[in-house]
Design goal:
The structure holds 2 protein chains of 2 kinds. Chain A is an alpha/beta fold. Helices cover 28% and strands 29% of the residues of chain A. In chain A, helix 2 packs across helix 5 and helix 3 crosses helix 4. Chain B is globular and about 60 Å long. Classes of the chains: A alpha/beta, B alpha/beta. At the A-B interface, strand 3, strand 4, helix 3, helix 4 and strand 9 of A face helix 1, helix 4, helix 5, strand 11 and strand 13 of B.
């Protein structure tokens, strides 16, 4: 069972705070991490390899420093971790990103499953998985909570808002992982040592994956950012004062009544 | 996405942009800000610069790339994917029809609904009552359950036949699976989780606005050279129109053509979990708890207030990750986006992710021990205090005065 896992390095947005004076992001000390959903993808790939043999290859498209994320998943236990990196990919939207990753997957050529995380926490689009699957012309299952190989097929559970579906898909297939799929392992001490001692980053450029400059980066992106702007700030908060909790609550309820969000029943 | 450049002559070295960058992509070199290779083109820095020295590098892209759609002018109309499951139209489909109606009127074109399923004739009439001019109905036992491959094929066929300039999808577990697959197949752009959709009257382009980077920045995105322009919208963001049972429209019985390749995925079973569905997106009032709630039992305090107000219970990421409240209650960027009439945030510090999920609520009340909590920056009313004291007092006060929620 050969498995490719697509990962992304993201800023740990849960640690991002806002400067109350300037209203801008305080970035100092915000670490870059492996996107959380992608860790579940890695974990499932490793579990399948442990059970059924094969090879797990992690790939990441990103700037040179994304090698840190690849080293981390190498420490978790993947067999190979490849960075797909080239200035020509900069500014790619999801269509153009799927193209770039797709070119790398085509170069790897042999795979039974491609895993992605459901979505990355810095963009939240959840689009790369399905777009990559379509580009490779293989079936996809998103929001996966359970995977079980059965001959040349996979039995897969996918979550819905109000339950789940049990599906059967032929291999090769692309699956996107969510938190409910598993509990990602921590790298072992041995894994960490090995990652720092042995891991040699393999970098594939655009030319290495035979990417056309017209199909990726800014030229290859059907969507264009017209403008970015700060969201309209809300009016100033009215702090409810009072000598005691009860007085404050009384004052608050009066105001809520004036606003018609509470009313006499 | 785009690339940015800082004009050295205008840069005063204030470093505000360095702080604003979520990716650490701006360095100070000889007292001037310089964008490095970590830049992802998110644009968060542009607004931070007091001298407006950060500019987008304009690219000439018109004739490049995955070829723009041929014969773009032939694409007319606004289409909405009318998601239904088990014979029930999802509320988000009606909300999209509401927005789609406005867009179609701005453009002077028709509004289409794409309806897929088995025995869905009655639903087609509902879609007309909620604003559709034409319903493309694929009524076939093969479409009873959602399957990515079969649904993609049918909708792509519908798009090729009806040639809409805009196609909208709900950002549901199904819409987010389907829309990107379609976008890739027909080579067009797709913008996720839009909170605002407007028409540029001059170009007829759809202006798709979405929060970027946890709601700290808003980005307006265009798909200038491809049709249809596609977007997903989260449930609860748009408003549906009043149902008009006398509204007239046309139902087109669409012929389903599925090959073997469109049916690789087999549905073995659909399991509905018998939990009371948490309907945060539709809730008028939400009482929500965060770190300050402290425990699973702590949420009972909030439930008391929710009962009086007939409100739903929400939770922050911290509350969900600690197991105090189930995931389907989570509000925020990784949870649900809500816009109730009133949102009462109890013991929630108010990370940007959380605020991105509830910032558009009409009235926001924040209760927090920390007077500097970020939640107060989006609140209308704030009380500094312990929620375990304040919330029960509020429940009591409302009960004594005979007050209820909306």
């Amino acid at each position: 069972m050969d498995i490719i896992v697509c990962i992304k390095q993201v800023p740990d947005t849960t640690d991002v705070k806002i400067d109350p004076k300037t209203g801008t992001l305080i970035r100092e000390g915000v670490p870059s991490i492996v996107n959380p959903d992608d860790k579940h993808a890695i974990e499932e790939a490793l579990k399948l390899r442990e059970k059924h043999g094969g090879k797990v290859t992690a790939i990441s498209m990103g700037p040179p420093q994304a090698v840190v994320a690849l080293r981390e998943v190498y420490a978790m236990g993947v067999d190979e971790a490849i960075l797909v990196s080239d200035r020509m990919f900069a500014g790619s939207d999801t269509w153009a990103t799927a193209y770039a990753i797709g070119q790398a997957v085509k170069k790897i050529a042999k795979y039974d499953i491609i895993f992605c995380g459901r979505q990355a926490i810095d963009g939240d689009t959840a689009q790369i998985g399905p777009q990559l699957a379509e580009l490779l012309d293989i079936p996809q299952v998103t929001y996966v909570t359970h995977v079980e190989p059965k001959g040349d097929k996979l039995l897969v559970h996918r979550a819905l808002e109000d339950g789940h579906m049990n599906l059967e898909v032929p291999k090769p297939a692309l699956l996107t992982a969510i938190k409910e799929l598993n509990e990602p392992r921590y790298p072992s001490m041995g894994g960490i040592v090995k990652a720092h001692r042995d891991y040699q980053v393999k970098v594939w450029t655009g030319a290495d994956v035979a990417a056309s400059p017209n199909m990726t980066g800014i030229p290859g992106s059907p969507t264009k950012v017209k403008r970015t702007f700060a969201p309209e700030p809300k009016g100033k908060v009215e702090m409810i004062e009072g000598d005691s909790g009860a007085v404050k609550v009384g004052n608050l309820v009066t105001k809520l009544k004036d606003k018609n969000v509470v009313r006499e029943g | 996405m785009v690339e940015f450049k800082i004009n050295k002559d205008e840069c005063i070295g204030c470093q505000l942009c360095v702080k604003s960058c979520p990716y650490g992509a701006i360095d100070m070199v000889d007292g001037k800000a310089v964008i490095n290779e970590k830049c992802t083109g998110c644009g968060a820095c542009v607004e931070s610069c007091p001298k407006e020295a950060i500019k987008e590098i304009k690219e000439q892209v018109v004739d490049e790339g995955p070829q723009g759609t041929e014969n773009m002018g032939a694409y007319k109309g606004v289409a909405v994917f009318a998601e239904q499951r088990g014979g029930e139209i999802k509320p988000v489909a009606l909300q999209l029809l509401g927005k789609g109606r406005d867009l179609a009127e701005d453009l002077g074109v028709e509004l289409y609904a794409y309806l897929l399923g088995s025995n869905v004739q009655e639903l087609a009439k509902e879609l007309i009552a909620y604003g559709a001019d034409k319903v493309y109905m694929a009524n076939d036992p093969e479409l009873e359950n959602y399957r990515t491959d079969a649904y993609t094929k049918v909708i792509v066929d519908m798009i090729r036949e009806s040639m809409p300039e805009i196609a909208l999808y709900g950002a549901t577990y199904i819409g987010r699976d389907l829309a990107p697959r379609i976008a890739q197949r027909i080579t067009t752009g797709l913008t996720a989780d839009c909170t605002e959709l407007t028409i540029d009257k001059e170009t007829r382009n759809l202006e798709q606005t979405r929060p970027a980077f946890g709601g700290n920045v808003m980005a307006t995105i265009l798909t200038p050279n491809h049709r249809p322009q596609m977007a997903t919208v989260r449930p609860g963001i748009m408003k549906h129109k009043e149902r008009d049972p006398n509204r007239q429209g046309e139902v087109i019985d669409f012929k389903v053509q599925l090959g073997e390749k469109d049916q690789l995925i087999k549905v073995l079973e659909v399991i509905k979990e018998h939990k009371k569905a948490v309907n945060l997106e539709e809730a008028k009032i939400i009482v929500s708890g965060g770190r300050g709630v402290g425990s699973e039992e702590g949420f009972n305090v909030l439930r008391g207030l929710a009962e009086v107000l007939d409100a739903e219970i929400g939770g922050s990421r911290v509350a969900v990750e600690n197991g105090w409240i189930a995931q389907d209650h989570q509000v925020g960027q990784t949870g649900k986006t809500v816009s109730p009439e009133m949102y009462i945030a109890c013991g929630i510090s108010g990370s940007i992710q959380h605020r991105a999920g509830m910032g558009s609520s009409k009235v926001i009340v924040a209760i927090n021990k920390d007077p500097n909590a970020q939640i107060f920056t989006v609140a209308d009313y704030g009380i500094v205090g312990d929620l375990h004291e304040i919330v029960p007092l509020m429940t009591k006060e409302l009960k004594e005065k005979g007050l209820k929620g909306l």
